[in-house]
Design goal:
With about 100 residues, this protein is an alpha+beta fold. It has one helix at about 65-100, and strands at about 5-10, 15-20, 30-40, 45-55. The longest helix is centred in the C-terminal third of the chain and has 38 residues, at about 65-100. It is globular, with a radius of gyration of 18 Å.
Length: about 100
C-alpha cells in the first residue's frame, strides 16, 4: 500500500483523520480508525474502524476482506510514520552534533 496512490489521508472531525481508499475493491470508501492496540498474546495489532462513507451500500465493518484491507493500510500508515520519525530524529541529532562541535 502506498499513501497518495492506494489511499490518502483526508481531514475528519476535530483532530482526527479519515482515510479515502483510491484503488481496489473498496475504492472511494472513506473510513477512520478508532482505537489501535497491540495484542501481546499473538503479536498483532487490534483496531476498530468506522465507515464514514462508501459507494457500496452492503459494505460493513464486519466484512473480513475490508478489515484486512484496512489492516494493510494501517501497517502502511504506521511504517510511514515511523520512517518520518526516524528521519526527524536523525536530523535533530545532526543539528545537535553541529551545535556541539562549535564549542
Amino acid at each position: 500500500m502506498n499513501e497518495n496512490e492506494d489511499y490518502e489521508l483526508i481531514t475528519g472531525d476535530g483532530d482526527y483523520w479519515n482515510i479515502r481508499i483510491k484503488t481496489g475493491k473498496f475504492v472511494e470508501t472513506v473510513f477512520s480508525f478508532g482505537s489501535v492496540a497491540l495484542n501481546s498474546d499473538n503479536e498483532s495489532l487490534n483496531f476498530s474502524l468506522d465507515i464514514v462513507s462508501t459507494p457500496d451500500a452492503d459494505l460493513t465493518v464486519d466484512d473480513i476482506d475490508f478489515q484486512r484491507y484496512c489492516g494493510d493500510i494501517l501497517q502502511s500508515v504506521l511504517s510511514h510514520a515511523l520512517e518520518h520519525a526516524e528521519s526527524h530524529i536523525d536530523e535533530t541529532i545532526d543539528e545537535v552534533d553541529t551545535d556541539e562541535s562549535q564549542y
